[in-house]
Amino acid sequence: MAHIVVLGAGIGGMPAAYELRAELGPEHQVTVINRAPSFQFLPSNPWVAVGWRTRDDITFDIRPHLERKGINFVAKPVTRIEPEKNRLELDDGEVICYDYLIIATGPKLAFDEVEGAGPDLFTESICTVDHAEKTYAAYQKLLREPGPVIVGTMPFCSCFGPAYEFAFILDADLRRRKMRDRVPITFVTSEPYVGHLGLSGVGDSKGYLESDMRAHHITWIANARTTKAEDGRMFVDQYDEAGRLIREHELDFKLAMMTPAFKGADAVAEVEGLCNARGFVIVDEHQRSPAYPNIFSAGVSIAIPPVEETVVPTGAPKTGYMIESMVTAIVHNIADDIAGRSLSGRATWNTVCLADMGDTGMAFVAVPQLPPRNLAWFKKGKWVHLAKVAYERYFIRKMKAGTPEPIYEKFLLKMIGLTKLRNAHPETPQTERAGAAKRGT
Fold first, then answer.
1. What's the average model confidence in pLDDT over 136-151?
2. How many angstroms separate the CA atoms of 191 and 221, rounded?
3. Residue 196 domain-assigned?
4. 127, 157, 275, 353: the active-site residue
5. pLDDT at residue 428 tops 80
6. Domain contains 128
7. CA-CA distance, 430 to 326, in Å (whole number)?
8. How many domains is the chain partitioned into structurally?
9. Which of the residues 127, 157, 159, 275 is marked catalytic?
10. Quick check: is 117 in a domain?
11. What values do phi and psi take at 88, rounded to 5?
12. What is the pLDDT of residue 433?
């Protein structure tokens, strides 16, 4: 019997547990460890931040849903990983041993890399439900005392979509309240241009987003390195394409929501030889650690090099369907290893992204997510807003039901050319990037 431990119960960890249970026989044990007892559907946080959703709408207790599928659940933080002994230590001293470990913890939020940043200081965040609720409280204060708003991303950020969503959702909510004229919005981003998204753009994302921001009277500063935040003021250095400082901005604000850089979770980053300099797990083409062959990782936890060098450092995002493809590959590879077979699972890293913009939305498909791509498609419209609302309900229902990939989902995605696993091939974009991952974010 093998004991597989999944560390993290988010968009990567929950599907991993369900897929493991479906793939492996009942003689094998699956345990999920998560620091909190509830699942959070993080893509809905921009809605929470303006009061369009509540915590209860997008969270649920994990335990009953996992245990109904025969999966163990432990709601405690992990403080130490000892890969040489194949065991984890929890914050209360409990020790859990494993045969295989899947790391899907998500990130540590590196607010400390910019002076004055973070919800405990002067800027808000929507990276967690707690943060989104605090942002909503700040938004309610803004409604009582209107003034300028800053939305954007810090240096080394690798998750750009939620900042764009929040800017447009905020714009839509203010227009509904007939207050938009009293709240100037400035978008400050570490991207070299609007619509870069950490992906060197997808289709004409630059043109679409610049046009929409003009239409919605959202000004922007790109190639921006935020250096400091104070109460009501942000300090931003702006660079040209050659890396020359062209302007030092001091921006006043009543509310500032800035997505921070990510780093690896402390317990993961502290394992010698497992991670790169920023604490992300180095993996091969099978999502497996080269240093510890029984450790796999998926999602925000893994090291992916930047798509390109940018003047202000940016990282490559790890989006939902891409993460699910990593998870499926890991499950296949653990099943292979238990059976004594060569590992066969290689994730496609394909991407489908739906971003809400309040009363419309933008969608893109990138196959694979990282260039060079076989397909790069970017569209916008009211249908995207409706599709994201439907997807929110669908994914939460899927996680409660414990169905990793219903047959109709697989069939529909295959119709548009999206699959989670790639056919065996001697060279893939992932294998070519494996060595570069040590530099990645």
1. 98
2. 9
3. yes
4. 353
5. no
6. yes
7. 11
8. 1
9. 159
10. yes
11. -120, 145
12. 40
The CA distance from 309 to 329, in Å, is: 29
Query: CA 364 to CA 162: how far, in whole Å?
Result: 14
pLDDT recorded at residue 233:
98
366, burial (CB in 10 Å: exposed 0-12, middle 13-18, buried 19+): buried
Q: What is the distance between the alpha carbons of residues 311 and 195, in angstroms, rounded to a whole number?
A: 16
245-252, strands of its sheet edge to edge = 224-230, 233-239, 245-252
Q: For strands 3-7 and 100-103, give the pairing.
A: parallel
C-alpha to C-alpha distance for 186 and 170, rounded to whole angstroms: 12
Residue 310 lies in a domain: no
Mean pLDDT score, 341-352: 91
In this structure, what DSSP letter does residue 438 have? G
Is 275 among the residues known to form the active site?
no
Does the structure show a pLDDT above 50 at 263? yes
**Binning pLDDT at 50, 70 and 90, where does residue 437 land?**
very low
Q: Please give the backbone phi and psi of residue 11, each rounded to the nearest 5 degrees, phi first.
A: -70, -20
Whether the model pTM is above 0.85: yes
For the record, the structure tokens of 239 come out as 């660079």
As a whole-number percent, the residues of the chain with pLDDT over 70 amount to 93
Strands 29-33 and 72-74, sheet pairing: parallel
* Residue 328 reports pLDDT greater than 90: yes
The reply to whether 159 belongs to the active site is: yes
The least confident of 4-8, 183-187, 246-250, 437-441 is 437-441
The rounded distance, in Å, linking the Cα atoms of 427 and 424 is 9
Kindly provide the residue ranges of all beta strands, DSSP E only, lying in 277-374, ordered along the sequence.
Answer: 295-297, 351-356, 361-367
* Contact (CB, 8 A) for 65 and 2: no
- The whole-angstrom separation of Cα 323 and Cα 14 is 11
- The two tokens of residue 81 are 């990983």
**Domain range for residue 172?**
111-259
Task: Say which CATH number the domain at 136 has.
Answer: 3.50.50.60
